[in-house]
Amino acid sequence: MKTSLISAALVAILAAGAVATLAFAQGGAPAPNGQNIAVIDVGVVFEKHPRFKSQMDALKAEIDATEKGWKDQATQINAAIEQMKTLKPDSPDYHRMEKDIATRQADFNVNKALKNKELMERQGKIYNNTYKEVESAVKEFCQQFNVALVIRYNSKPADSGDPQEILRNIQRPIVYIKPGYDITDDIINLLNRSAAAPQNGGGRVGVR
């Protein structure tokens, strides 16, 4: 995101009162020297990030189609193996099919491994690029409100029927959050404005 465009969006949000509920200091005014602390649920931000969701949906559709292709190829190879079994092991046709099947199996395994690696790398880039957007939005937000520290936390309640989930909940570092210190929705609003803006050069997205 371009800094100037993000700043302009933040001014617009402030004017609309979208972040007027922040209560970092007495009277609702931000503290002077970056002494404020806020929290954010990055998982929720990702879930509600429209561009992240659309990219992951597209990737999932490609993964499903790719998996279907692998299954179809595997079915064809297995059918060839069954056909080969009907031939005499010492016949020329048997040896020809055996060689052909071995080649197809080798190509199948190599192509599948390479494609899976490519898909995993692309998924990683989507997550990484989205997290960079979140970091950028959080930075701009904190500069506006003199926030010195933003702590990541999980806002979802633990499943009371899952002992492991209960244990993880007990081990959470944050026990209490004063209303107004959670900036998750504010960052989501900023990113949504960014997603609605036209693409700029270099693949970066600005905010109107």
CATH topology: Protein Binding, DinI Protein, Chain A
What share of residues are in beta strands? Answer: 5-15%
Overall pLDDT level: 80
Uncertain spans, ≥5 residues at pLDDT below 50?
Answer: 1-32, 199-208
In total, the number of strands is: 2
Instruction: Tell me the CATH architecture.
Output: 2-Layer Sandwich
Give the H and E element order: HEHHHEHH
Shape: elongated
How far is it from the N-terminal to the C-terminal residue, by CA? 11 Å
The figure for the number of domains is 1
The number of helical elements comes to 6
Compute the gyration radius: what is it? 26 Å
- Superfamily at the CATH H level? Skp domain
**Widest β-sheet, arrangement of strands:** 1-2
According to CATH, what is the class? Alpha Beta
> Given the helix and strand composition, which structural class is it?
mainly alpha
Biggest β-sheet, characterized?
Answer: 2 strands, parallel
Percent of residues in helices comes to: 55-70%
3D architecture notes:
Helices cover 63% and strands 5% of the residues. It has one domain (3-203): 2-Layer Sandwich (Protein Binding, DinI Protein, Chain A), CATH 3.30.910. With 208 residues, the chain is mainly alpha-helical. The protein has a two-stranded parallel ribbon with strand order 1-2. It has 6 helices and 2 strands. Helix 1 (3-16) packs across helix 4 (92-145) and helix 3 (50-85) runs antiparallel to helix 4. It is elongated, with a radius of gyration of 26 Å.
